[in-house]
Design brief:
mainly beta, Jelly Rolls, 2 domains, 2 helices, globular, Allantoicase, Galactose-bd-like_sf, Allantoicase_dom, allantoicase activity
């Protein structure tokens, strides 16, 4: 595992992988040890965490993120199901403590495992925090207040496909966003997103190869001034113009914009 400077985010993670934990791709929280002050589900929100300074609720100051009680002698934890049905090959992580100052998580560690469809069907949301199959991907690492912490996995760890990730917050505190970056491999037959199944011959199944959850990925756009090119491969319909690809206006003769999609 290597800690990555923030100015290298695009080169190391942003342009080489997909945020496969995002709620936009179906990422979700399965369980958590504690979320007394702020829900763990906020970790997977698409946008950055806004400051809620000066706003208070029944339990005290409000934060957009995951915040636990100050009681835990060991660690708090949250278990996530990644968005792709068949999982993804993990590249790295972004642990963001935005707006948590003095109540941020002092340390974190990150773990992952793989479940087959059959194992997942029998386990459901009851995957145990202490399951022996959890593998440590990021060992205990320090966190600072209100900042992003980027981690890149070693090459040998990037080859395995994982379906679930567990984040430890040591011993407790708050984290605003947690983003898991990886590459989505082509799914096994029958596990593709939106796959049309031919019951008589699986070779005749129909699958959207450009769909991000089926391994499609934008590798280059000539312009994305107003909206990221990767948005055009997201599931469903765009909620507004900001949820699509939008370029600068040009009226030059023969001008066009373009994107390259890796299937």
């Amino acid at each position: 595992m290597t800690a990555i400077p923030l100015d290298q985010f695009d080169a190391v993670l942003g342009s080489t992988s997909t945020e496969i934990s995002s709620v936009a791709l179906g990422g979700r929280v399965l369980s958590t040890s504690d979320e007394w002050f702020a829900p763990a589900s906020s970790l997977l929100k698409v946008g950055p965490a806004p400051s809620l300074k000066g706003q208070f609720g029944p339990k005290g100051a409000l934060f957009d993120g995951w915040e636990t009680r100050r009681h835990n002698p060991t660690y708090d934890w949250v278990i996530l199901r990644l968005g792709p049905n068949a999982g993804g090959r993990l590249i790295g992580f972004d642990v963001d403590t935005a707006n948590f100052i003095g109540n941020e998580a002092p340390e974190i560690s990150i773990h992952a495992l793989t479940l087959t469809p059959e194992e997942e069907a029998s386990t459901g949301n009851a995957l145990a925090e202490n399951d022996a199959r959890w593998e440590t991907l990021v060992p205990v690492s320090p966190c600072g207040p209100s900042q992003r912490h980027l981690f890149k996995l070693e090459a040998d760890k990037q080859q395995k496909v994982y379906t679930h990730v567990k984040l430890h917050m040591i011993p407790d505190g708050g984290i605003a966003r947690f983003r898991v970056y990886g590459v989505i491999p082509p799914p096994p037959v029958g596990q593709g997103d939106g796959e049309q199944i031919d019951a008589t011959n699986s070779a005749l199944n129909v699958l959207d190869l450009a769909h991000c959850l089926n391994g499609g990925r934008i590798v280059f756009t000539d312009d994305q001034h107003f909206g990221a090119g990767s948005n055009i491969l997201l599931p469903g319909r765009g909620k507004d113009m900001g949820d699509g690809w939008e370029t600068r206006r040009s009226r030059g003769k023969g001008h066009f914009n373009w994107a390259i999609i890796k299937l």
